[in-house]
Write a structure and sequence with these properties.
Chain A: Pfam families: BPD_transp_1. The complex is a heterodimer of chains A (312) and B (347). With 312 residues, chain A is an all-alpha fold. Chain A folds into two domains: 2-78, no CATH class; 91-305, MetI-like (MetI-like fold, Orthogonal Bundle). Chain A has 13 helices and no strands. The longest helix of chain A is centred in the middle third of the chain and has 36 residues, at 91-126. By secondary structure, chain B is α/β, with parallel strands linked by helices. Chain B has a domain at 251-347. Chain B is built from 14 helices and twelve strands. In chain B, a hairpin with a 2-residue loop joins strand 4 and strand 5. The radius of gyration of chain B is 21 Å and the shape is globular. The chains are: A mainly alpha (312), B alpha/beta (347). Chains A and B meet through helix 9 and helix 10 of A and helix 3, helix 5 and helix 8 of B.
Chain lengths: 312, 347
Amino acid sequence: MFRYLVRRLLQMVLAFFGTTLIVYALMFAGQGDPIQALAGERPVSEAQRAYLTEKFHLDQTGVGGFFYRYVDYVGNLLRGDLGDSLTGRKISDMLAQAWPVTVKLAIIGLLVAILVGVTAGIIAGLRRGGIFDNATLALTLLVLGIPTIVLAPLAQYFLGVKLPLFPPTAGSEPSIYALLLPGIVLGSLSLATALRLTRTSVAENLRSDYVRTAKAKGLPIRRIVSVHVLRNSLIPVITFLGVELGNLMSGAIITEGVFNIPGVGFNLFRGIKTEDGPLVVGLVSVLVVVYLVSNLVVDVLYAVLDPRIRYE
Amino acid sequence: MSDQFGRQGAVATAAAGGDGGHLLEVRDLFVEFRTRDGVAKVINGVSYHLDAGETLAVLGESGSGKSVTAQAIMGILDMPPAVIPGGQILYRGTDLLKLPEEERRKVRGKQISMIFQDALSALNPVFPVGWQIGEMLRLREGLSRAQAKRRAIELMELVKIPAAKQRIGDYPHQFSGGMRQRVMIAMSLALDPAVLIADEPTTALDVTVQAQIMDLLGELRRDLDMAMILITHDLGVVADVADRIAVMYAGRIVEHADVHSLYEAPAHPYTKGLLESIPRLDHKGQRLTTIKGLPPNLMRIPSGCPFHPRCPYARQECVDVVPAVRSLGDGRTSACHLAQEVLDGRI
């Protein structure tokens, strides 16, 4: 296990540099004049241009110059300095503000997926072929078929405007209540997938040989389901939800955009729109780390849940 | 545990049952699987009995209904799709099919227990074996965790698992095939049952391990004074262990006899075919004898005797009339129109 962890951590380092390099390259390759981009519409004087060229090492050109700047950037990153956004704000400050909102939103989404999705999945799996099973099948297919970009405005219009149960937008300092509807929208896709996965897993395990053994042992059916079947059925579900938490935390660009939630996805979206290279690269770098760590946690958790899986 | 089947009261209850005093008796049992594709008549009037301390072998090809009968006795068939339209399963004179589910559940493991073919899939992969053995003791007998663990170690020692104490925390996949089957056996013995049903216990094992497991089962049956139903398709396994044999075909018992008489002179063409298809060393170099054809589709069982399409002696009578079970003396029966002729070797 220890050797496995070391190997995975080394792989993470590689993955981190790889992804940041690609994002860095993509973000700055498309730019014509970065100094003009920084200044926006305002004119740039010769002195300012000289100063900025010096500051951002723009005097170095070609592939060598690119790598020089990349190494410089990553060096700062590793020291914990994410740099400044083109708007002049420190990216670390922006992240400190946006991050808690996104985490709250992700947790609401995940809770919805667990509470509704897994519970309904268990019931559907136990009553395979019944009315509940078929009804949830239809509903989940519907949810899986509607993209968030359609679902989010629909929910906002019907549950926020027409029937004002929830605030239609979240605002700058959103409360948990204001995040509830976006959280449900965000979690609905995970919910549907978790439901299908749980349902299939439960139904499959119910037919397994070890359940027959448990019956032959004279155990009450309640115990067979709640201990033997669930313990086995939830292994893939928990793995899925772990990966899903990583996905949800890495920002929900569409949901945060529609509901005007100042989270990571919202900032990322704005960064891409305004060609704010430092902001995009900074945010993506952090998201890459979040994603890599959550994947590692899931893999380790998998080995803990299933004794048949051992990492060498 | 002073439920109605206390082991001490065995003789008294059986006598009170007044049905000839068999420990376990299956009477004219029918089982169907009602599926979307149609009704499969899996068991068609099976009757057999088991007395205390004896071993009955139930022999038959895959799909002959031997396992389904056993699962009906245990009450672990999935219903639906399985339906039991008729028959009785008498245990110490009580019809198990008429018991409420809660009572029925208490019979499992405690009175009648069962082991299965593939111990790897039959054990829960995510719990340690000691936990799985102990679970029965904790839930059924109210033992504490520590007591259950001690007893689980004893049971694992009883079935001769080496270093039982160290292996109690191991998971099923960490055991070899033979050791896993021993774990299954230990679990089936946990509540000291009167009847053990072994459903092809050695099919998934190597030949050498098969012999060990069969020896162990025979030994345990004697030492613990159990009765055993041994379900198998392997005639070789049966001879040393069983007292009586019931041969099944297409959901019926086609022949029933004590082991020696059956091996000496079968009274049903199907049994005869089975015995002739055992590979023999002194026939080296010759083609193996087989029974031609395949077992019938249980959704379309042939008319008359279900074996007639494969039977070398079949006559018009066999196509038209379902053969009744004929008694041939000494408790031998055969469901064949030509039973006496086959027995006497006249055909």
